[in-house]
Amino acid sequence: MSTQPRDHTTVRAFDSVSVGDVLPPQTVHVDRARLVQYAGASLDRNRIHWDEPFAKKVGLPDVIAHGMFTMGSAVTLVTDWVGDAGRVVEYGVRFTRPVVVPYDTGADIEVSGLVKSADPETKQVTVELTATAAGEKVLGRALAVARLD
Predict the structure, then answer these.
(1) What residue ranges define each of the domains in the chain, with the CATH number in brackets?
(2) Is it the case that residue 1 has pLDDT exceeding 50?
(3) SS3 of 63, please?
(4) What is the DSSP track for 100-114?
(5) Distance between CA atoms of 130 and 65, rounded to whole angstroms?
(6) In the structure, what pLDDT confidence band is assigned to residue 9 with cuts at 50, 70 and 90?
(7) How far apart, in Å, are the Cα atoms of 3 and each of 7, 8, 115?
(8) Residue 8: alpha-carbon gap to chain centroid
(9) DSSP type of residue 6
């Protein structure tokens, strides 16, 4: 039996990063099918994430994305940029608005990031994330700390 060599991901070098660096922005598309898949995987089957009449009955404009889905979509920008999801050692956000997911079009979560600090002693960088949907900021105080090589 032959084995293929594993493809090792290259982790971003600390020396290649400066405070003020802008991470390449990403757009994450979410539709109703993805919300149902996420509900199954996360075990968060709250009806506001898949049942439009129910969501409207409880005062929402439509079905909304799971908060953890939105949070996870945003940090993907950092994990892709760093090169290894395991390098994110701290992450926190404040939810400011829900991501409304219309049936016909779905929704786009647009994420950008900015390096706010870099500690040469620990080789850790702090990235401030901005996440918007339909032109509205959906996460506040979104900060991720990653350890680089």
Answers:
(1) 16-147 (3.10.129.10)
(2) no
(3) coil
(4) B--TTT-EEEEEEEE
(5) 17
(6) low
(7) 12, 15, 39
(8) 23
(9) P
